[in-house]
């Protein structure tokens, strides 16, 4: 008994300087600070471990500093910024001139070049997506670059691996970058045959001591495939049978992914190369073969926007915020996790109170219980402002999509939550095209047919247990 008391005293003593560090040294927002203090006080031993895994800020210099490469590569940034600010930009879709301030914001703060010679194909089913992706891999002539948060050792994972291995053996450059946390269940030998065939594999932000010092924050949540610098895939689908709807718990997997052909592929290629250089230390150059000349396509306007703990601004969040503020008629949002910060929450409420129809869709089943209950607490707040909220019943909704007025849309990897805004490395495509945005809006409306609307009455009738879960999860939302 005395040993237990002594141990508790030691842990409590450690908590004091740690709590002071949280308050004075780490520049967190107030809600995150209070959430961590509550964790440290209520569960001192476990709280200390959780803080080591989740709580520390990341040095922007420590992770990587390749902004000079970005600036050198984008020689037309200044010219395009000047054109936007002086109204000299010639838009293929004339209505997109109404959103030039959004384009300028992304250009100025995320070096996101605006291109409008792109063709886009939308995928909402994993089987269709990966059949198309494997077909593109099989037809590669020069190189294949992929970065993924999750790759599983199952049928689909091995189909992708076999296709990459075959192309590597044919002399095609193959580079695969994976996140250590997302792929923690992969066997160490998984990539051996790809490496033996000449393919290159790198891991993003690995632990110093495997399985002991794994950081749960600062993960590379991006999902990008670039083939020959001519076509690219971006969206929410990870690689695994689960994402083909073969998981008994989640059933049908509803996500959104894009295939892009056009100059926007250059931005995704650049994003991959910067991540690859950091993870592999390979002195890969921005060779012209990675950025071949593009043929003019359908004229869809796109900006590829990246954000992460290395960014000065929470740029994807700012993009979402600007979209919501720009909406005149309607806002449609897919997100598996709805844990927004105050700025997004207030923007959604103000839009709804101003007469804009705001619709938010989340899953009807949790894959992360605390995040799910926190999401429902935000639903309650939005309902009071007239926001329409739905739960998707057909399977699991993992799509990350925002559409406004059938004019502008965003599809990518960033959820509507603080983890995506602040802690993970994310990438989204912002699309400025009426036809594409209208198509995504139509898809959203079809999804509503598979949903249950959460009304104020049904929300008020939830049980005391659910209310308790929501309250606790809401308090922890800044650290989820």
Task: Write a concise synopsis of the structure shown.
The chain has 480 residues and is of the alpha/beta class. It has 18 helices and 19 strands.
Structure notes:
It is built from 18 helices and 19 strands. A hairpin with a 3-residue loop joins β15 (401-404) and β16 (408-412). The chain is globular. Helix content is 43%, strand content 20%. It has 3 domains: 2-57; 66-78 and 117-301, 2-Layer Sandwich (Endonuclease, Chain A), CATH 3.30.870; 315-479, Endonuclease, Chain A (2-Layer Sandwich). It has 480 residues and is an alpha/beta fold. Residues 61-72 have low confidence and may be disordered. The strands form 3 sheets. A 15-stranded mixed sheet has the order 4-3-2-5-6-8-1-9-18-16-15-10-12-13-19, sandwiched between helices. Strands 7-14 form a two-stranded parallel ribbon. It has helices at 2-24, 30-42, 44-55, 60-63, 67-73, 77-85, 100-110, 126-138, 155-169, 192-196, 264-280, 315-326, 342-353, 369-384, 418-423, 434-448, 456-460, 464-476; strands at residues 115-123, 143-148, 173-179, 200-204, 224-227, 231-235, 252-254, 257-261, 300-307, 330-334, 338-339, 357-363, 388-392, 395-397, 401-404, 408-412, 416-417, 426-432, 451-454. α12 packs parallel to α13 (342-353).
CATH topology of the largest domain: Endonuclease, Chain A
Count up the helices.
18
How many structurally independent domains?
3
**CATH architectural label of the largest domain:** 2-Layer Sandwich
Q: Identify the quaternary structure here.
A: single chain
**What is the CATH superfamily of the largest domain?**
Endonuclease Chain A
Beta-strand content: 15-25%
Gyration radius, in Å = 23 Å
What topology, given as strand order, has the largest sheet? 4-3-2-5-6-8-1-9-18-16-15-10-12-13-19
Please tell me what the overall shape is.
globular
Low-confidence stretches: 61-72
Q: What's the CATH C level of the largest domain? A: Alpha Beta
Q: Kindly report how far apart the N and C termini lie.
A: 34 Å
- Overall pLDDT: 86
Largest sheet: 15 strands, mixed
Please provide the count of β strands.
19
SS-based structural class? alpha/beta
How much helical structure, as a percent, in the residues?
40-55%
């Amino acid at each position: 008994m005395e040993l237990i008391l002594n141990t508790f005293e030691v842990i409590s003593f450690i908590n004091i300087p740690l709590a002071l560090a949280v308050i004075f040294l780490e520049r967190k927002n107030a809600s995150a600070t209070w959430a961590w203090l509550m964790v440290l006080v209520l569960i001192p031993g476990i709280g200390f471990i959780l803080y080591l895994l989740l709580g520390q800020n990341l040095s922007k210099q420590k992770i990587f500093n390749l902004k000079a490469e970005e600036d050198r590569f984008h020689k037309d940034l200044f010219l395009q910024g000047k054109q936007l600010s002086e109204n000299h930009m010639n838009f293929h879709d004339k209505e997109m001139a109404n959103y030039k301030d959004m384009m300028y914001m992304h250009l100025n703060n995320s070096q996101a070049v605006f291109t409008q010679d792109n063709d886009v194909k939308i995928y909402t089913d994993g089987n269709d997506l990966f059949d198309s992706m494997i077909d593109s891999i099989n037809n590669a002539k020069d190189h294949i670059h992929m970065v993924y948060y999750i790759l599983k050792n199952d049928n689909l994972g091995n189909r992708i691996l076999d296709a990459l291995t075959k192309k590597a053996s044919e002399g095609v450059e193959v580079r695969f970058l994976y996140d250590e946390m997302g792929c923690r269940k992969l066997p160490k030998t998984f990539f051996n045959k790809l490496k033996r065939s000449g393919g290159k594999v790198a891991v993003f932000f690995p632990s110093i001591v495997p399985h002991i010092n794994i950081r749960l924050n600062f993960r590379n949540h991006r999902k990008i495939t670039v083939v020959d610098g001519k076509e690219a895939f971006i969206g929410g689908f990870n690689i695994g049978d689960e994402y083909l709807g073969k998981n008994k718990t989640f059933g049908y997997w509803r996500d959104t992914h894009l295939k892009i052909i056009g100059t926007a592929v250059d931005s995704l290629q650049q994003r991959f190369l910067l991540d690859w250089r950091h993870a592999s230390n390979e002195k890969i150059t921005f060779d012209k073969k990675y950025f071949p000349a593009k043929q003019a396509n359908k004229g869809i306007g796109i900006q590829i926007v990246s954000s992460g703990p290395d960014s000065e601004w929470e740029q994807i969040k700012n993009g979402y915020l600007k979209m919501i503020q720009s909406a005149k008629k309607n806002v449609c949002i897919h997100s598996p996790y709805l844990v927004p910060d105050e700025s997004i929450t207030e923007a959604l409420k103000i839009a709804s109170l101003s007469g804009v129809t705001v619709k938010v869709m989340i899953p009807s089943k949790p894959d992360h219980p605390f995040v799910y209950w926190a999401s429902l607490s935000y639903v309650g707040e939005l309902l009071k402002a007239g926001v329409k909220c739905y739960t998707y019943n057909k399977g699991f909704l993992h799509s990350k999509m925002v559409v406004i007025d059938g004019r502008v849309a965003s599809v990518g990897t960033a959820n509507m939550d603080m983890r995506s805004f602040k802690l993970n490395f994310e990438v989204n495509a912002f699309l400025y095209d009426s036809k594409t945005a209208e198509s995504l809006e139509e898809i959203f409306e079809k999804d509503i047919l598979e949903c249950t609307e959460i009304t104020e009455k049904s929300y008020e009738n939830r049980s005391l247990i659910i209310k308790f879960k929501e309250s606790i999860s809401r308090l922890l939302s800044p650290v989820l």
